[in-house]
Amino acid sequence: MVLGLLRRLRPHGASGAASGLLVPLPAGAGAFGCEAVDALGQPLGAAEVTVTALDSHRVAARGTTDPYGYFMATLPPDRYSVMLTAEGLSPVRETVDIPAGMALAPLRIVLEPGRQLELPPPGTWLFDPPHTAIRFIAKHVGMAHVHGRFTRFKGGIRVAENMGDSQVSVRIDASSITTGNQTRDNHLRSGDFLDVENYPYIDFASTRFSYRGGSKWTVHGTLTMHGTSRSVGLDTEYLGTVNGGYEQELRCAALAKAELHREDFTLNWRSMLARGIAVVGPTVQLALDVQAMYRTHDTPTPPN
User: Fold this and answer.
1) CA 14 → CA 7, 58, 114, 239, 282, distances in Å?
2) Would the pTM count as exceeding 0.70?
3) Which protein family is it in (predicted)?
4) In this predicted model, what pLDDT tens digit does every residue of 4-18 receive, in sequence order?
5) Beta-bridge partners for 228
6) Which of the four pLDDT bands, split at 50, 70 and 90, describes residue 90?
7) Measuring CA to CA, how many Å separate 129 from each of 155, 287, 290, 293, 301?
8) 158: part of which helix (H) or strand (E)?
9) How crowded is the C-beta side of 206, counted as CA atoms within 13 Å?
């Protein structure tokens, strides 16, 4: 499709810079340009574009469209796969041949709304701990990343008739933190960090759901940790429903992520560094990979 459109845009007998684009080209190079728009023809700024050489499968160019939806790259002559993605919209992949010595007119590419999964039925859904994970990644100051998780928690989702009015709540046992290093875990449980003796739980309670298109939502709510409450937005992808599990009960799944700033909840990390406490950096990436069971009179009790 793209190749045919490009051919129609190319003037007969053109050489060098052609077809409405006046750009300098290195010797023997060509150029690819595109204009990303939505189904209403509105420009899509910040759409992600990846151009990959089909023969070597190497990424030749990567970037985002400008505020007017345009992207352009200078490339060696070859056949390429061009992938455009944007939040809430279905990705588009096209194949294009880039000739030498030509800057082709930008190709207009339309991204349609993403397929919306059927929402879970209204009612109460309980987290299934063996199939749910609460993980985090924090950068060790000046070194590699620390990966960890909480192993004890409980929670649920109340799905309302209007999805935006739904609610989710999670209670995490702070002492269940584990990073694979007992010395570090004991330090994270201490008063320097989570202070689990005085603040045994980490709680999240939602206030509203905001639809972002496709299967994407933002779950707004309050996170309480270390005696401090802050507003947090969880970037959430709904993964659908299925019958399965212990007794083929109805289940739904979602993946939620957020970036937390540790200074919002614990001691100032700079003061810790001054005291020689260099464990994790100032930001923490949090991910909740949730699977929940629809609650009925015969739903099995989720194991601990």
Assistant:
1) 11, 29, 38, 49, 56
2) no
3) Belongs to the UPF0312 family.
4) 333 333 333 333 333
5) 225
6) confident
7) 9, 15, 8, 10, 11
8) strand 153-159
9) 26
